[in-house]
Amino acid sequence: MTNTSPHPTPSPLPSFDNKGALLRERAEVLAKLIKADLSRPRALLSLLCGLLVALAAGVVVGLLVGAVTDVAWSPSLSTLVLAVAIVIGGGAVPLLGLLRMRAQGRSRWALIKQWAVVDRWPEARLLPASGDEPPDDAHLLERYGTGLTPHLRWITAAATCLLSAILAVAIAVVEGITRSAPAGFCAGLAVLGAYAGSVVKKMGTRSAWFHDERAIRRLPEERQRRQRALCEQSTDVVESVPSRILPLELTWCALPLAGVSTAYLTNDPDDATGYVVAAIASLAVLMLGVLLVLGARTREKRRLAVVFRRVSERHPGLRVVAVRHGLQPENPVATEGLASWDFSPARVAALALDRDVLTLHGTNDARLTLPVGELLGAVVIQTLRHSVELHHRNGQALLLRSPDPRSVVEVLRAAGLKVVRVAA
């Protein structure tokens, strides 16, 4: 059940007669790989292994704490060591199974990413076109969920992670961790929460990658539509980029209220312990979410700050904002102008405004000069992580991403560019 059927790598591409044959092969291989990646039997086996590892961790911690703190239960050292060794040995088998499935999943995910972008490889562009209608495999990319409807496995794992954290905090506060049973329960819940968190990270990473891949595949048609909207728009409709509250953020903020309400319904009104535990656990979960969000933003700003500081020090007095560019992390396409920065690996850059000239300063002292008069305008794409897309009058475009899109819009408006907003 854990064996992954071998799948071919996309290279070498010259073995395909035309691009239609390549796309048909891509659709077939992606269907098999994604089916294996989302296999229910494999997911159930992984869950069973995770539960067994959590159980083993709880039993080991309970034995050790009981041997130290429980006076009535005083086993000999040899008996304790033997019991712990047996439990650890039993837990090692499902742990090794988890590690093996994780390694197979990483290999499978690497193949999925390669096959998904195989039509944008430089070798693929040299293949002759075919008269057949290419197969549509866009529906395969939606199996991992969309931005508003995550995959059910992600929702279940997230709920399990939060519930494990709440129960562990509640048990630790009410019962303490000086006795064997509460300590074992807390340890088992901690391991179970860590396992569920790894599933959340895995499914979240896949969903985010496929969200970007769907956007890139629709890019030519969407850019034509956005360019028409930019030409038809008679006024500058964007003064600033409004912040959005996502459904996940609303759910996370509602957790404290849900925790206190649950305590009110399940506890004796005269007993304040349940309310205290619910408040502490809910606030702990809320603060954990805040710290995770702040940590992600801080890491992103640190990555962008390197180029930002270098450009600011070399060109004092200019308006500079840090951005990301690059749509194609693998196998960049040989192009010129804006397209050379757009169809490239994801990189950081700094956008600087000097009078009527916009300049992109990239890594390795790369530079792209854009006179404002040659630019048609910019479009703020709300559903693509608040990205801003620059449009050139020659038809090319460049997608810029920033954790602070307001600053990007302010620089573009200061340059005199027309900035409009579209939903996608």
What descriptive keywords fit this protein?
four-stranded antiparallel β-sheet, 424 residues, alpha+beta, disordered N terminus, four-stranded mixed β-sheet, 13 helices
Structural class: alpha+beta
Largest beta sheet: strand ordering? 1-2-3-4
Portion of residues in beta strands equals 5-15%
Per DSSP, the total helix count is: 13
The quaternary organization reads as single chain
**Order of helices and strands, N to C?**
HHHHHHHHHHHEHEEEEEEHE
Radius of gyration: 27 Å
Q: Please, what is the average pLDDT?
A: 76
Q: How many β-strands, per DSSP?
A: 8
What can you see in these coordinates?
This protein has 424 residues and is an alpha+beta fold. 58% of the residues lie in helices and 11% in strands. The chain contains 13 helices and eight strands. The chain has helices at 19-37, 40-69, 77-116, 122-125, 138-141, 152-174, 180-217, 219-232, 247-253, 255-266, 273-314, 338-342, 405-414; strands at 319-325, 347-354, 357-361, 367-371, 375-381, 387-392, 397-400, 419-422. It has a four-stranded antiparallel sheet with strand order 1-2-3-4, sandwiched between helices. A four-stranded mixed sheet has the order 7-6-5-8, sandwiched between helices. Strand 2 (347-354) and strand 3 (357-361) form a beta hairpin. Helix 6 (152-174) crosses helix 11. The longest helix has 42 residues, at 273-314. Residues 1-5 and 234-245 have low confidence and may be disordered.
